[in-house]
Amino acid sequence: MSRLPKEIRKDLKEEAKKWDNTIAVESPEHVQKMINEAEPFKIPRPARQPVSVRLDPFDISMLKRFARKKGMPHTQLMANWLHERIEQEKEIAPN
Questions:
Q1: Are 65 and 26 in contact (CB under 8 A)?
Q2: Domain boundaries, the chain
Q3: What CA–CA distance (Å, rounded) separates 15 from 75?
């Protein structure tokens, strides 16, 4: 299932068709110029919310060690792991 709203997907499909039709009759140099001038697509995301969780000190130290090995902050690693787990749970039991 796509995370994009239907109206954005529809707009993207229409834009892709327009690009395909335009590019088919253009020279490679002109196509490259159009690509360079195109606006990047950005999806607005809601701001992240802080959450407090009480964890065992040993778990925190291990988490920091894992994060250091991956070269990222431990809070980002926790958020990534939590997100991965949520995605797994969604696949197992939708709704």
A1: no
A2: 6-37, 57-92
A3: 38
